[in-house]
Amino acid sequence: GGDPSQKIDYVFKVVLIGDSAVGKSQILARFARNEFSLDSKATIGVEFQTRTMVIQHKSVKAQIWDTAGQERYRAVTSAYYRGAVGAMLVYDITKRQTFDHIPRWLEELRNHADKNIVIILIGNKTDLEDERAVSTEDAKEFAQKEGLFFLETSALQATNVDDAFLTVLTEIFNIVN
Ligand code: GDP
Ligand code: MG
Predict the structure, then answer these.
(1) Which residue among 30, 66, 115, 121 has the highest number of C-beta atoms inside a 10 angstrom radius?
(2) Which domain of life does the UniProt lineage start with (predicted)?
């Protein structure tokens, strides 16, 4: 949020996780700055970005953490997860392997994050429908089985990006209220 005088009622830390190149940094760029870049480089030195939203008349500052290219299995440190109340678990709908790795990321969350963390599964790059390798039904079924929220997004087209964050933030908000 730009206005420094704005009263903040809540700050929620949310972490982005998932394989490299699924679109985590672009989802964050879209959400925090309404920007998108087709040849994105890892942002060096920036740990998180924020955006303040109003939920049920309260101002909620989302502090969204992005891995700076540490997506190798077990390379993300526990400091990254510390204090996180939400997690966005991202795969690329055109790369089956990135979906097949989701159980590993869930295990990482179970090992490092708070057990009550709110998790949303996100299938990104829906603008590439012709290259789809993971069906919506498969992902939905998996999410249901694991008790995760689920949405498909396109950071490029700005489809469902705000909705994905709002889903997580509203659920966290309801838990703390
Ligand atoms: P990260 O490694 O998970 O942070 O992935 P990036 O955000 O760096 O994105 C990896 C590549 O995928 C970049 O070339 C992005 O421009 C591209 N990308 C990210 N989101 C989308 C999307 O929704 N649609 C398309 N077509 N490309 C995307
Ligand atoms: Mg990135």
Answers:
(1) 121
(2) Eukaryota
Question: From CA 113, how far away is CA 125, in angstroms rounded?
Answer: 27
Q: Is the shortest distance between the CB of 40 and ligand 1 below 6 Å?
A: yes
What ipTM did this prediction achieve?
A: 0.99
**Residue pLDDT, tens place only, 102-124:** 999 999 999 999 999 999 999 99
Residue nearest ligand 1's atom 6 by CA: 23
Q: Hey, what's the torsion of the CAs at 135, 137, 138, 139, to 10 degrees?
A: 90
Q: Comparing C-alpha atoms, which of 56, 24, 1, 42 is closest to residue 120?
A: 24
Strand partners, 13: 63
